Amino acid sequence: MSAPAVLPHVDAVTAALAGAGLTVYLGGAPPNVVPTAADPYVVLYPEPGRTEAASLADDRTNFSAVVQLTCVGLTAGQAMSVSDRAIAALSAVLTVSGRTSWKPEALDGQPVQRDDDVVPPCFYAPSRYRLRSIPQ
Question: Can you name the CATH fold of 6-135?
Fold first, then answer.
């Protein structure tokens, strides 16, 4: 059995968010992309994750990782609306091929903040989720 990998888990988060009608970017928004009234977005910042022993035999088949979702909109309300949609999308078990997953666990978040370093200014709301899975 191969060791679990982070990318299939990130792909599952992306699919869940896209299924909720959200635009999703990995590791940052492309240059010159700004949210619009019609198209706010989510940026995923995943950590590499780690394998965990499934038993005393030290078979490293279990997986755990944390992913940050940064919900971005033109207004504070729009950023919060995107966050609400992301929360709903991640309230179900993720589908990861060959793995049995838990529902993503909400860990923490930060207050909505205004970013004046972009034109036009936008608002963002970061939150973090723990992802876990075991082999099927």
Answer: STM4215-like (3.30.2000)
